[in-house]
Amino acid sequence: MVLGRGKRRRRSQRGGGKRALSGCSMLWHSLLRVLRQRWHRYKYRFVPWIALNLSQNQRTLRYVPDNSKDKIIPDEDVLGALLKVFRALFINDFSRQTDILVLLPEAIKSEYQHSLVSHHPRTEKPVNRIQQQKLCQPGEVLFNTLGFSISRETSSLISAGKGVFVTRGFVPKGTVVSMYPGTVYQQHEPIFFQSIGNPFIFRCLDGMLIDGNDKGISKVVYRSCNGRDQLGPFKMSDCTWLTSEVQNPLAVGQYVNNCSNDKAANVCYQEFDVPELFPMELKQYLPNIMFSRDTRR
């Protein structure tokens, strides 16, 4: 009887060892699956992999003979679209712009009040118009201004995470559909720690980098620079793209996915330099800020 129990005990131990090995195997496969998913997201930013796979991704290539010719539409059209959307957002939020309106020249102030009148023709007094103004959601403002609205949702591409979708309306060819938000770094500025595990670093043609990550240290850096550059009531950039309450509906460009062999691109990026004479009261909607204060915007 004693030997029998000893034998059963040994068999039980061997069975427990198999279960332990099975558990380790499942953990290992789970770890491999996570690493594989991360690699699929990161490989498009890994230079050796890109170099070895250029011939297999002809659709991702676009020949540009000169940096100055890397324009799909003129800069004037880009500026016009941004001003149109930003002014509509400003008027929609007119009741909260009191501190800014006090400091604006009378001509510019009158122009905004006239635009407010055209949006609310039934009201007789300007004061009442401001008080009775009904705010629209930023996405609704975008739809009323450019004829479409977009949102960030789960991508239909495998292992692509989030993506940007047109949720309403129609986007004509050559239309500005989004902006790539984030802190702008020059080549010599420190970005090492922000770039670790960060898939949202965008390199411009002139070597400048845009960190479009809305989490971690990238988020802290952007908020810090945003508070640093504010001039009284005038904000030099928009930081709401870091939150769930986004005031500029175009500031989702970092979530636009690359094309693949299975799905062709339906948008392309174009670099645009914000002019120095950009309206001060509308800079609050710009989702970019320079890392160094002394750097020319």
From TrEMBL:
Classification via InterPro entries: SETD9
PANTHER family: C5ORF35 (PTHR33524), SET DOMAIN-CONTAINING PROTEIN 9 (PTHR33524:SF2)
Organism name: Monodelphis domestica
Composition-biased stretches (Basic residues): 1-17
Region of interest (Disordered), residue spans: 1-20
Domain of life: Eukaryota
Name by which UniProt lists this protein: SET domain containing 9
